[in-house]
Structure prediction request, 126 residues.
Amino acid sequence: MNPSRLTNALSICIAMLLSACQTPWGASPAVLRSVNDAAQQDINRALAQMLGASKVLVDANPLIHSPLLALERAPIKDPQGELMQGLNLEMPEVFRLEIYAGKCRLVQVKTGQNRYLQLATCQPAP
Prediction:
C-alpha cells in the first residue's frame, strides 16, 4: 500500500475513533422542549451530582437553544464585594444534553459521566 494512502487511512480511522468518543453511538444532541420548575431542579440535581457539589444553581434556559452548557466557578468575594482571588485559569466545565435510548440525559464532556433527566423533556437539536 502507498505510504500516503496508509497515512490517510490511519488519519480517517483516528478521526472516527475520536468522534465516537465524543457522542456514543445512538446518542444525538438535544435541546430542552421547555423549562419549568421541576425540569430546572432535575438539571441542577444532575449537575450537582456530576460535579460532586452539594448544590448547584444554574439557569437551564440556554439548553432550550443549544445542547451545550458551560459552567464557570463563581468568583470568591470579600465582605465588601471585592474579588479575593487572582486570575482564574480554570477551564469551564462543559455539559452536553443528548437523547440516548429515547431518554434525555446530561453528559459531562470531560469525564463522560452522565445522568438521565427524569423531569425534563428533550427534543433533537436543530
Notes: The two ends are 42 Å apart (CA to CA). Residues 1-22 have pLDDT under 50 and may be disordered. Residues 3-22 form the longest helix (20 residues).
